[in-house]
């Protein structure tokens, strides 16, 4: 998002920034709140929680947080919370917008980057809503398995309660989804390890099956 900002200008934009370290579950900003800062995520993950029962999604180190509200001047459309301990830099929105008003070419690059990011988020949420809970879980595990074939062991990058949030379900529903996938050779341990007996078979299921939640 800041690729078009010259190094000297970046240093200027960082003047007056706030460095924050937040614990697990801490609120970064609330839905409906005014966008006072643009956040740069240095370490950890942030969970974006849209209103209602929409699936949630995560931002990781290197991502910006809250840019859609800052750049449009609108209130935040979702709540953002720390998923584990996080380290952030908070840039004052007023300083950033004043800079962009006099650097139109940089503003265009930032808006283009934001649009691409939002398209990806909308695609992910749309796909999640169209799948059953078991299919969502299968797709997620396949993404972790990558190009593997045959037997594979993957490790969940975060706790199962956070995985449930990401997939748009509660922990009990996630447990039932894992149970449904046992017939497809998926075995989850009590830790972060998940064994897949045959990635190819699971991939066929992810493409074609029609379990109901």
Automatic annotation (TrEMBL):
SUPFAM superfamilies: cAMP-binding domain-like, Winged helix' DNA-binding domain. Residues 131-200 form the HTH crp-type domain. Keywords: DNA-binding, Transcription, Transcription regulation. GO terms for molecular function: DNA binding; DNA-binding transcription factor activity. GO terms for cellular component: cytosol. Pfam families: cNMP_binding, HTH_Crp_2. Residues 1-91 form the Cyclic nucleotide-binding domain. InterPro entries: cNMP-bd_dom, cNMP-bd_dom_sf, Env_Response_Regulators, HTH_CRP, RmlC-like_jellyroll, WH-like_DNA-bd_sf, WH_DNA-bd_sf. It comes from the Bacteria. This is Transcriptional regulator Crp/Fnr family.
